[in-house]
Specification:
globular; L-arginine/glycine Amidinotransferase, Chain A; 10 helices
Amino acid sequence: MNTNENHSFRLPAEWEPQSGIILIWPHEDTDWRPYLNEITEVYLQMADAITRFEPLLITVRDTEKVHSLLAERLTEGQIKRVTLFACDNNDTWARDVAPISLVSDKEPKGSLQALRLLDFCFNGWGEKFAAEKDNRINRQLYEAGLLQGVLENHKDFVLEGGSIESDGDRTLFTTTGCLMAPHRNQPLTQEGIDKRLRLFFPNVERVVWLDYGQLAGDDTDGHIDTIVRVAPNHTLLYIGCDDKEDEHYEDFRLLEEQLKQLRTIDGAPYRLLRLPMPDAIYDNGERLPATHANFLIINGAVLVPTYNQPEKDKVALDIIQEAFPDREVIGIDSRTIIRQHGSIHCLTMQLPLNG
């Protein structure tokens, strides 16, 4: 039984109505420096796609420079949907830095009390990278009045947005590889973490732990948003691997078997949609974690990473369109993003609508 005092709140599914998207803009003192022009172009493409459908909140180090770049690319109407906030950062992975939002179906719609913004600790995926500046972003946005809702401090618990998936109802999905990885929340056991998750997210009655599906080159220890995504109508999109010579083959075969055994909270099998494993992409001899599963759902559209692999890109886009038939599916070349071991979903965080 959930005893959280915020029992009227729930973690919405990503496809529910949104009030905006958060981005953290790259600059020359981030790891993007060697290809800053290339990643800036990707950000401009994302900004263009997002602002066609909803507002965009961007934290930036140089607001004038970024505004000029956006003004050259976006229409006047799109620019009006952009808010720039001057704020320093270590890196740009908004998915794991920005607050995880809860919505209330009982509080008055449009009121600040209808949203809870959970501010967890981001520690660079288990203390691999510096994150002290990133950890201050949410508080700065909140104090500037740019986050609507009530900010809750949960800095005593490490939780990254990319490590969980919600169906908006009663089930939360995660991976044992990530949440049980070193330097996260030791000495908590899996049982202890499971209990904490159900307290943080009051609507969640069960946590589904996936045990397989680790992508080569992934810094996150296995974020679920790189391998399995939740869609409406009890649908799970997941990465499959057909090449028996691929290093991923056996692990992703076991993932597929685990997914086939899963049942919804009401006892029915999930509708499974299988996405192709992109052909291997290397950077200086290191395999990069290319995946079509790291898509972003926004109001009216889905932004999908592509990798200049026409056949597999098309298959992935068509399957994601099948999962989201009422949304426009927009492919964005993500070969530059994966050079820093993430993709579109990793760079973004949605803010739910509270009215």
